[in-house]
Amino acid sequence: MHNDVNTLFEKLWDNYLEVTPSAVKVHELLGSTQQDDVINDHIALRTFNLPKVGLEKLAAHFLAVGYKECGEYHFEAKKLYAKHFEHEDPTQPKVFISELLVEQCSPELQKVVHEMVEQIDENAVTADNFLYSGTHWQVSHETYKALLAESEYAAWMAAWGYRANHFTVSINHLAQFDTIEQVNQKLKDAGFALNTSGGEIKGSPEVLLEQSSTLADDARVKFSDGEFAVPSCFYEFALRYLQPNGEIYTGFVAASADKIFESTNAR
């Protein structure tokens, strides 16, 4: 496991950029090209609730560098469970980790997922690079499409494996933008397609969090039966509001997160 939180996020970021070239363009639009000007609110990671690779196995990498568990979330329709983690240093990004409740899925999907996870070396899960190690298996594009018909989440994992599913711009820290509407307009003017599931803006000042996101880039994946372009990763934007106690809200809103998951749906 990494002993340094900054190194871990640098590696996650570099790995994310490999399949999300639009992220660089987002930075140029919203800040300068220096990553420092765009503060990362949180990242999200996906996994399966199998003992070898469950949420807690991913979380261990963050707990090792000073994170603590903060909230839990249920997504019944998508068959997902999630937790979020915060660092003792509030300037560090929050971490949102979800897992697919495999036993609630069809026997066909369960079989594919178990076969994929069986191919992961036990030692790989605790290795420094696990959170940005990608896939430890190869599936066919046909299998990917079959998974997609049942669970976009499972299909995304089959194609991309372990990596940040998205990074998130903290609108609160942007110098020239005050509202999420301004950020969305700037993105649309530059030709970005936004996730409109549940509206362009998910959440509201009343729930203390507003979020929007781009639709995932398409990137090529080498499947066992050829190379195909499929949705990769996306960029999210978050504006947080003050709680009655004067502290900024640091949690997540399940109803909004539910729609954010759909940023990796095919266009």
TrEMBL record:
It comes from the Bacteria. Its EC number is 1.13.11.93. InterPro entries: HGLS. It is an enzyme of class 1 (oxidoreductase). Gene3D superfamilies: 3.10.180.50. Its cofactor is Fe(2+). Pfam families: HGLS (PF07063). Keywords: Dioxygenase, Iron, Oxidoreductase. The keyword Nucleotidyltransferase does not apply. The keyword Iron applies. Belongs to the 2-oxoadipate dioxygenase/decarboxylase family. This is 2-oxoadipate dioxygenase/decarboxylase. It comes from Pseudoalteromonas qingdaonensis.
